[in-house]
Known about the structure:
Blueprint: E1 2-8, E2 11-17, E3 22-25, H1 39-48, H2 56-60, E4 65-71, H3 79-93, E5 98-104, H4 113-120, H5 122-127, E6 129-132, E7 141-146, E8 152-156, H6 157-161, E9 164-170, E10 173-174, E11 178-179, H7 193-199, H8 202-206, H9 219-230, E12 233-241, E13 247-253, H10 255-270, E14 279-283, H11 297-304, E15 312-316, H12 326-332, H13 337-345, H14 356-366, E16 371-374, H15 380-385, E17 389-391, H16 394-405, E18 411-414
Parallel strand pairs: 3-18, 4-5, 4-9, 5-6, 9-12, 14-15, 14-18, 15-16, 16-17
Antiparallel strand pairs: 1-2, 7-8, 10-11, 12-13
Helix pairs in contact: 1-3, 11-14, 13-14
Amino acid sequence: MKTIKMPYYTSSLDLHVEEKNLEAVIVAKIHEYKAQKSEEEIVREALENPIGTPKLRELAKGKNKVVLVTSDHTRAMPSKITLPILLDEIRKGNPNADITILIATGLHRPTTVEEQRRMFGDQIVDNEKIAINNAFKPDDFTYVCTLPSGAGFNVNKLAVECDLLITEGFIEPHFFAGFSGGRKSILPGICSAETVNENHSYKAIASPYSVGGVLQNNPIHIDMVYAARKVNVQFNFNVALDGEKKIIAAFAGDLVESHEKGVEFVKSLSLCPTVTGDIVVTSNGGYPLDQNLYQSPKAITTAEACAGEDGVIIMCASCIDGMGGTHFEELMLSGTVDEIDERLSKIPPKETIPEMWCVQIFARILKKHKVIIVSTYLDHDLIRKANMIPASSPDEALSIAYGIKGKDAKVVVIPDGVSVLTIKN
């Protein structure tokens, strides 16, 4: 019997699999990577050696109004380490700079002060100017241009009214944008709801290029880069993280060039051979990404690549904050999988419903695979109404899956499905 720890909320759950059933345990090499320097040293070294731009302190000279865009509470960005160093670097160039830290929420709820203290530390919360993007306040945005997709680009006014725009984030595989980081700080990070919705339209999500690990010809990525260039992001800073959310690499400089270097590094450590199983067990990597069902397709799409034609997918996600957004919940509970997908497919890009993209991805997967959700927080009746099967533990879920696929079913385990990049055969 093999015991495998599945990340779950702030801890883990044990999964027990008989050796005869266990086909593979897939773990990204990024979890095993050992950095030779401290996190602070890695950050400072990247800032001393920017890719394609002058050093940040040089860019900051003569720039009085500075906006630094950072991640919100749904991301594991180690801003407590990076922000003080970035702020210090800006002030080396201009000690009197008026700096605003802008939290990129996309369509997420506003980040609370308590969450800010956990993310940034008391020193920054008590002494720095912090603004939170609210995609649903039209007066906070200004129209810039039409994006390559035809979507209207409305961005937070702070980004266009500053003298120097800087972004920070981290890079990992992303289930429809290819990879996170870089340009995502702007779109969807600090855009209006209308812009985010249209960028995430049914047509865009349905593109064969809108998948994990793919940037070339990805229509969502193309819009995102165009948007970030239009607001003149002059300096981009991204990190790569290991399984403990520790910084193992950092990339600074030009928006595209530095991001591409980071993607190259992350891809080299995340890409894993695809092993097909009758049952695939995964997680969303624990907190913060497993805090609701809305975020869960990230790992489920990784499992999808290994689940064969009709394999069963088991997803461990605490969902301590429930289903997710109101629109997501309403759509997920609105009918059968086929009914939901048919309805979404008829919605024009400019009428895209907030959060429908994750519903679309769930529908695509549920057409082929039974999905079991392991959660001790989310109401099991809601899971059933969402066309999935509830379970309270990985072992209970595995027992249900054996009942569907047979006692000799081959099991593939991907403990952290967000960090792994698998390419479907």
